[in-house]
Design brief:
178 residues; mainly beta; hypothetical protein yedk fold; five-stranded mixed beta barrel; three-stranded antiparallel beta sheet; 4 helices; globular; DNA damage; DNA-binding; protease
């Protein structure tokens, strides 16, 4: 993680291994507050704007005032380190997971946003149009995967620069994992 993200507070020799992380579970994310990077655990899923809504895990409409308020403030952006992600395929009752990863990178990062809630910090990941590989399984969206050169801009750049990073990752650099 230090090789990918540089120095950060909360660093430890190792973090727990996760077989998979699902909504409403805690996951490690990297934040930048006051110019300092920190590795913290947050629950996946931001409460919605209406009482009784399920927590929102994926953010697509970056111009919505609900999300834009978090996107405008770089301190409410985060990086979600991942080794792979899955999309579901098949009919209801017989769905299976299809896992995706990067060909030459064992660890990469999603673009995320977060906010403090009455139950603690909660985060969601950005999504965008799928690339040609992910589209084979999930034709509506894919997570926003950031290149390492874009991590600093995501965590500290202005709104327009940050949302310009919300685009499909190069399909040729990805693979379906068995």
């Amino acid at each position: 993680m230090k090789k990918l993200f540089g120095e950060f507070e909360g660093s430890r020799s190792n973090i727990p291994s996760y077989d998979a992380i699902y909504p409403d579970q805690e996951a490690p994310v990297l934040t930048a507050t006051g110019g300092r990077h920190s590795l913290v655990n947050m629950t996946w899923g931001v409460p919605g704007w209406k009482e009784g809504m399920r927590p929102i895990t994926n953010v697509r409409n970056l111009t919505s005032n609900f999300w834009k308020n978090m996107l405008v403030d770089p301190q409410q952006r985060c990086l979600g380190p991942v080794t792979a992600f899955c999309e579901w395929t098949g009919k209801k009752g017989s769905k299976k997971k299809v896992w995706f990863g990067l060909k030459d990178e064992p660890l990469f990062s999603f673009a995320g946003i977060w906010r403090e809630t009455h139950t603690g910090p909660r985060m969601a990941f950005l999504t965008c149009e799928p690339n040609s590989l992910v589209e084979l399984v999930h034709p509506k969206a894919m997570p926003v995967i950031l290149k390492p050169d874009d991590y600093g801009g995501w965590l500290s750049g202005g709104y327009d620069d940050a949302v310009s990073l919300a685009k499909p990752f190069d399909a040729d650099a990805m693979e379906i994992l068995e």
